[in-house]
Design brief:
This protein has helices at 2-7, 35-70, 117-120, 190-195, 302-306; strands spanning 9-15, 80-83, 89-95, 104-107, 110-113, 132-139, 158-166, 181-186, 206-208, 219-225, 231-238, 244-251, 262-265, 277-281, 291-300, 318-319, 337-338, 345-358, 363-365, 369-374, 378-383, 388-394. It is of the alpha+beta class.
């Protein structure tokens, strides 16, 4: 079943907790660990091994069932969807003559976009007219709960499994594709989550009446970025649409007017739903940094700033490429700075990540995956392989 294990692809949308799980060295009967603690560790290790075996048996049985169904499917028919009372959902289809290329498949609310057939079969000879089958499974819970760092995922996480099958009904080992797979997973929040009877995966926006501290010139907000491969969304909704708002962003310390990683004027950002401005920062933009991300909110007088040489900050997003440069404190301030804001605002900051389960290392990893985009409604992952993939949201 090693072929089966390496060829499966999972996608998960989840809320994360704040604790990472790290394996520890075991010391038995050497005074570093008590007998009682050693026995507890042995029991946990045995339970994890048993759980891993049971999960693999369940997955293997599901795959055998699907392969039996595929034997009776006419190539080119509409996809077959099966839904169980427990919430398990399966979508099965066979696509002839290379028609899987750029195919868009809807399954359980998620969307899968396939690359060209020869991008998928990059590790074998490909002519572009190969027949390939697809199996998508929505599991109602986390399957790989025995893996390290699983604490990052919430208990109500749903797992989406994807397999690619050739015409001989053998599972294709999909890895290092020349163009990536796309997996777009919806995210329920607010009224949509309440209507579906599901837990909100995002925090509610925080309503702010901005008043800078007497010794500061910005109103600061912060979020903890725990994993290096995360992307960050900043949603802000000013009550006064005519206000000129600038966002100063910096990792690990509060930004200043001449000391920041990014400077973003709201005028340069499109609204995500006609009201809120949604700023998406990919992991490439934030350079895979971790720790506290600080956001400073500033309002300026547009007319006064336009008269200065720095009027460009009203319309241009500025990214400081040299994040390691030394800085000396100055008294510099931006022209037109307003301490009395003309607007209140609401703000929500959250992170997203695309991870897969590595069976060899028994950890969740982001290797070969990235967050292409994310907002309050969905997370869009791209991966160059088909393994155990997790899409998570961290408030």
């Amino acid at each position: 079943m090693s072929q089966v294990r390496n060829a499966q692809c999972f996608a998960v949308i989840a809320r994360a907790t704040n604790n990472l799980f790290f394996s520890e060295l075991d010391y038995i009967m050497d005074a570093k660990t008590s007998v009682e603690d050693a026995l507890k560790k042995a029991v946990i290790r045995a339970e994890r091994m048993a759980g891993e075996k049971q999960i693999q048996q369940m997955v293997d049985l599901t795959i055998e069932l699907v392969l039996a169904i595929l034997k009776n499917i006419v190539v080119g028919e509409e996809p077959i969807q099966l839904i169980s009372p427990s919430g398990l959902t399966m979508t099965i289809a066979m696509y002839p003559k290379g028609s899987i290329s750029n195919k868009v498949i809807k399954h359980g609310g998620s969307t899968y976009v396939f690359p060209h057939v020869c991008d998928i079969l990059v590790n074998t000879e490909c002519f572009g007219n190969e027949t390939l089958g697809v199996l998508a499974v929505s599991w109602p819970s986390i399957l790989q709960s025995f893996g390290n760092s699983v604490d990052l995922l919430s208990e109500d996480t749903k797992t989406l499994q994807l397999l690619v099958i050739n015409q001989s009904l053998s599972i294709v080992d999909v890895r290092n594709t020349t163009n990536p797979f796309s997996i777009i997973v919806p995210r329920k929040s607010g009224e949509a989550a309440e209507a579906a009877g599901e837990e909100n995966t995002l925090p509610e926006p925080t309503h702010v009446t901005p008043r800078p501290k007497f010794y500061e010139s910005m109103v600061y907000h912060q979020v903890m970025v725990e994993k290096a491969d995360s992307a960050v969304n900043i949603e802000i909704n000013p009550s006064n649409n005519d206000s000129e708002i600038l966002l100063y962003i910096k990792f690990r310390e509060k930004p200043l007017f001449d000391h920041y990683d990014m400077l973003i004027p709201l005028r340069a950002v499109k609204t995500c739903n006609g009201e809120s401005y949604d700023i998406f920062l990919s992991n490439q933009v934030i350079k895979n940094q971790t720790g506290f991300l600080y956001v400073g909110v500033v309002e300026v007088d547009r007319e006064e700033l336009l008269k200065s040489p720095e009027s460009y900050v009203l319309d241009e997003i500025i990214i400081d490429e040299d994040v390691t440069a030394n800085y000396s404190i100055t008294n510099y301030t931006v022209p037109g700075l307003m301490r009395d804001y003309t607007t209140n605002y609401s703000m929500r900051i959250f992170t997203s990540g695309c991870y897969f389960y590595d069976y060899q290392r028994k950890i969740w990893s982001a290797e070969g995956c990235l967050v292409e985009s994310a907002n309050y409604a969905m997370t869009h992952c791209k991966c160059n392989h088909c393994k155990f993939l997790s899409i998570e949201t961290i408030p």
